[in-house]
TrEMBL record:
Domain N-acetyltransferase positions: 101-250
Listed transmembrane segments: none
GO cellular component: a single term: cytoplasm
Annotated catalysed reactions: N-terminal L-methionyl-L-tyrosyl-[protein] + acetyl-CoA = N-terminal N(alpha)-acetyl-L-methionyl-L-tyrosyl-[protein] + CoA + H(+); N-terminal L-methionyl-L-valyl-[protein] + acetyl-CoA = N-terminal N(alpha)-acetyl-L-methionyl-L-valyl-[protein] + CoA + H(+); N-terminal L-methionyl-L-leucyl-[protein] + acetyl-CoA = N-terminal N(alpha)-acetyl-L-methionyl-L-leucyl-[protein] + CoA + H(+); N-terminal L-methionyl-L-seryl-[protein] + acetyl-CoA = N-terminal N(alpha)-acetyl-L-methionyl-L-seryl-[protein] + CoA + H(+)
Pfam families the record matches: Acetyltransf_1
Name of protein: N-terminal methionine N(alpha)-acetyltransferase NatE
Keyword flag Cell inner membrane: no
SUPFAM superfamilies associated with the record: Acyl-CoA N-acyltransferases (Nat)
Subcellular location: Cytoplasm
């Protein structure tokens, strides 16, 4: 998949169960892997990642990252072309505080990335129908990129139960090392923008585990409120109870009709 310069060796890397990622290493660097000249610093190989355009596998790759630490999820479309050595702290687990956050479409080409992401982020397993429906909702489902690396996603659907037109947030989350960087805010603001531009939603809502205080506080900052508690909502995870968090745009039609009758 990539040309190996003369006088180099290839090593196979296995990260999070995804294999066949090849890094080109100079012979002089092979002896440095795993060694440490100082007790608190470690010499490591720091690869440069490239992403192949989905439309044309033979097209020129685009550089998307400079550190393997920024890419927890490897896919068949990512490969390592060149490497350099750098001294970093071995316990470094967080990405840079400055980065570019973008949202991208979910397609047949990257749906597997969404599946892998959900397996890491959420304790709930989503079936094939979930992913089939995600491919049909357009702007209601997006992947979140941090410096062109997939690190989060938001998936919604329209709900017309209870004589209302509501937007249901099925999933919204990102990988733990990338939290508190504004990624969740970008995804939620995208959802709220859709609701505002549509102008015909009664509310937007989601389910959150009752012990997930961080998520509850996050949504409350955007005007969501706990409107209901559902007992035993989740299966095979504890606690099984969930709060329904909701942001209301207009009161239910029944309430609207009652207020109209009072005025008349």
């Amino acid at each position: 998949m990539c040309t190996r310069p003369a006088g180099t060796h290839s090593l196979k890397i296995c990260t999070h169960g995804h294999q066949h990622t090849v890094v080109t290493v100079k012979p002089s660097q092979l002896g440095k892997l795993g060694q440490s000249d100082q007790p608190q610093r470690q010499q490591v190989i720091q690869p440069v990642l490239y992403r192949l355009p989905f439309s044309s596998p033979s097209a020129k790759p685009t550089k998307v990252a400079t550190s393997i630490k920024e890419s927890p999820l490897f896919t068949d479309r990512l490969y390592i072309k060149t490497v350099c050595t750098a001294e970093i702290h071995p316990t470094l687990k967080t990405p840079p505080h400055r980065g570019r956050i973008e949202l991208g479409d979910i397609t047949q080409h990257n749906i597997k990335q969404l599946k892998r992401l959900n397996q890491v982020v959420f304790p709930v397993t989503y079936n094939d129908k979930f992913y089939k429906d995600v491919l049909e909702v357009g702007e209601l489902a997006k992947l979140a990129y941090y410096n062109d690396i997939v690190i989060g996603a938001v998936c919604c659907r329209v709900d017309t139960s209870d004589n209302q037109r509501r937007l249901y947030i099925m999933t919204l989350g990102c990988l733990a090392p990338y939290r508190r960087l504004g990624i969740g805010t970008v995804m939620l603001e995208h959802v709220l923008k859709i609701c505002k531009e549509d102008g015909n939603f009664d509310n937007v809502f989601l389910h959150v585990q009752v012990n997930n205080e961080g998520a509850i506080k996050f949504y409350e900052k955007f005007g969501f409120e706990v409107v209901e508690e559902k007992k035993n909502y989740y299966k095979r995870i504890e606690p099984a109870d969930a709060y329904v968090l909701q942001k209301t745009f207009r009161p239910p039609k029944a309430l609207q009709n009652g207020e109209a009758e009072k005025k008349s």
